[in-house]
Amino acid sequence: MSWLDVVPVALVTAAWLIGPGAALSYAIGLRGLSAWGMAPTLSMLIVPLTAVLADVLGLRWSPFVVLGATAVVVVLAAVVSLLLRRIAPPRATDPRRVLAAAALGLLPAIAIGWYVLVQGVGQPDQLSQTYDAIFHYSALAHILDSGNASSMAMGTLGNVATPTTFYPAGWHGLTTLVVLSTGVPIATAANLVAGVISMLVWPLSCMLLVRQLVGRSTAAMAVTGAVSVAFTAFPWGLLGFGVLWPNLLGLALAPAGVAMVLAATSLAREDVIGRRRAMALAPLVVVACAFAHPNTVFSLIVVCLFPIATSVLRWAVRLRRAGRTGRAVTGVSVAALLFLGAWAYVARAPMFAEVRSHVWPPFETPARAVGEALLSAPNGKPALWALSLVAVIGAVVAWRLRTSRWLVAAFAGTAFLYVVTASINRPSTQFITGYWYNDSFRLAAMLPLTAVPLAVLGITRLADRLGALIAKAPAPAATVPPGTVTAGAVEGRAVEGGAAEGRAVVGRRSLLRTPTVLSLVVLAVLALATKFFYVGANTDIVAGTYAVEDVPQRSTLVDRTEMEFLPELEAELPEDALVANNPWDGSTVMLAEVSRRALFPHANIPWSAEQQYLAANLDDAGRDPEVCRAAERLGVHYLLMANRTFWPHDARNNDYPGLRVSASDPGFELLAQKGTVKLYRLSACDAGNPVTSR
Questions:
Q1: Which of 428, 451, 474 marks a domain boundary?
Q2: Which end of the chain is more exposed for a tag (fewer CB within 10 A), N or C?
Q3: What is the pLDDT of residue 654?
Q4: Total structural domains within the chain
Q5: Does 94 lie in the same domain as 46?
Q6: Residue 516 is part of which domain span?
Q7: In b/e form, how buried is each residue of 637-665, taking b as 16+ CB within 10 angstroms?
């Protein structure tokens, strides 16, 4: 399957990401850019909530369930919106020129994103060679097998031997909708969902945030798309680390969430959402982001703290000027105490204890970490000099505007969190960084959330300065072309014609001096200075997690031999087979790709006593009767042995000693083999087979 073949699948993916939310956006009174910018967030409200409700009602997960739920939600929202029409009337859309600029501004974002995806991933069905991919592929396979996409039961991947736990499954539910709608393998669907999030959802969300910051600016809309996909830390950084697909989805929604807060705090310029509507939608946005990934909520809190604080302080200043200083002081104090109290509670809450406990040793000096944040080069990535310079110019602009100073402070806040994790990261700092697993990669991904609008402000300011320089140049005089002047009326017509031509030339030059055209000129210069928005560097970042080496490397999860074995594996295993496997040798991902269940669907899930016994003793099936008893209770009849090419240094590889057998071990029938990859049937446990006790 080529990339051209999967273009229709990418369009289906975009439809699932935007379609349900767009319908709901228009139903609640949003229009134009606000409707489309909020659409992915509202889609991520509908899809995971539908999955939870479908599980409660006993409905199997399918596109028809989601479409039905969307129809019901849209009708109810339209009725409520109609009843509340006087309180929150539909918002007027932006002028067509602004919408046209936004639509055209998406094109370079899609083109750049598609290039990075194609060159970085390699093939549409290429598997990610990462630790987190083991869980995500297994989760997709579990949903397709069980018909249950509820986040309330996703934490243990359907492991019947352990209690179900919560895991945010918004990304997984969406990706399985793509699989069910198109029939592509889960690896292809995962890659396309990640790509569409990066090249479409993130730019759309950034456009809405920039629109709320600068108002009806065609120039800003025209350049935001390209700028949004130029930063390495996000979205490409999360495709090159982890892979953190749920985090990618959640953070891609975050700019729209910030835009909502700007509307609620009356800090938006020519607001396209509405204060009352924003306040009503805010809790729903939080729920949507939590279903994508909970640390997105904390990312929103960090960034939105600054506009909220700005709004509170402005309110207090108004009260003080009105002679109500006591009320102002009380209000500010109460707000501060509420925030600090909530943070203190969350910092001690048991539900986040496991997340906060992750330890990542510091790897930078504080000074170097600050430099990396300013140069958009976190975690040792290449410095984005030109783009960072433009963002610094934008920071100066935002600070001078006064009403946008919160944006500079928010960037400083996110940079501070990155510096703490990269250069300090000790137990005493985990109360502020623990919600991102104390992980510098996740915190670095927050930097573009504020850097993108700062860079857009920088580009438009440079365009303004360019326009001022052009305006100082002398304008061309209206001249009469030689040889056209005769006498009398003919002479008059000739002079009039020459003046009209002069005015046309001036008009064309005036058009070229518009802010939009000048901003595009600055963007073009930036493209040259950044080697087309750093596509080479960003491609290399993505490619690092998909590369499969001919010589086994520490990062190879499923090597070429294992990939070639997949058709035979699918042919030999019944559709309902449960297969014993070591999750550290790539077998879990192989089984997920052929839609078969793995006894150990991830490398870090609590196992039952029976699972632990088989992990240690399955190779004794021909000698130990307890092995067959445990296998029968679990329903295990097969063993897949794959190549150990992933993290061989990790001690957890040794937790499954009983899952390596040889030809001399009785009780195992070899069904298929390619190199050292082998599929066995557990023949020792067949009815009537004698088992020799040890």
A1: 451
A2: C
A3: 85
A4: 3
A5: yes
A6: 465-538
A7: bbbbbbbbbbbeeeeebebbebbebeeeb
Of the pLDDT bands very low, low, confident and very high (cuts 50, 70, 90), residue 164 is: confident
- Say how far apart CA 232 and CA 379 lie, in whole Å: 11
pLDDT at 688: 54
Q: Are residues 405 and 485 in the same domain?
A: no
Contact partners, residue 596, CB within 8 Å, separation at least 6: 141, 569, 570, 573, 575, 577, 579
Residue 410: how many CA atoms within 13 Å on its side-chain side?
Answer: 28
**Is-contact 672 569, C-beta < 8 A?**
yes
Q: Is the peptide bond before 243 cis (omega within 30 degrees of 0)?
A: yes
Strand partners, 555: 646
Do residues 439 and 375 both lie within one domain? Answer: yes
Return the higher-pLDDT residue of 483 and 464. 464
According to DSSP, residue 201 is labeled I
Q: Are residues 586 and 522 in the same domain?
A: no
Statement to judge: residues 405 and 327 lie in one domain: yes
Q: Which amino acid is at 193?
A: V
Q: How confident is the model at residue 487 (pLDDT cuts 50, 70, 90)?
A: very low
333-367 confidence digits (pLDDT tens): 999 999 999 888 888 888 888 888 888 899 999 99
Question: Residue 1: is its pLDDT beyond 90?
Answer: no
Residue range 302-329, pLDDT digits in tens: 999 999 999 999 999 999 888 889 999 9
pLDDT at 356: 86
Within 8 A by CB and 6+ apart from 533, the residues are 112, 226, 227, 229, 230, 387, 526, 527
Residue 622: inside a domain, yes or no? Answer: yes
* Non-local CB neighbours of 86 within 8 Å, separated by 6+ positions: none
Q: Could you tell me if residue 149 is inside a domain?
A: yes
Indicate if 405 and 509 belong to the same structural domain: no
What the block records as the tokens of 470 is 């052009």
Taking CA atoms, 75 is separated from 27, 70, 274, 608, in Å, by 8, 9, 21, 46
In this structure, the answer to whether residues 252 and 299 fall within a common structural domain is: yes
Question: Does residue 20 register a pLDDT over 90?
Answer: yes
CA-based angle 341:343:348, to the nearest 5?
Answer: 100
Could you tell me if residue 431 is inside a domain? yes
Residue 555 in domain: no
Classify 142 as helix, strand or coil: helix
Same domain (yes/no): 505, 641: no
Residue that terminates a domain, selected from 451, 475, 492 = 451
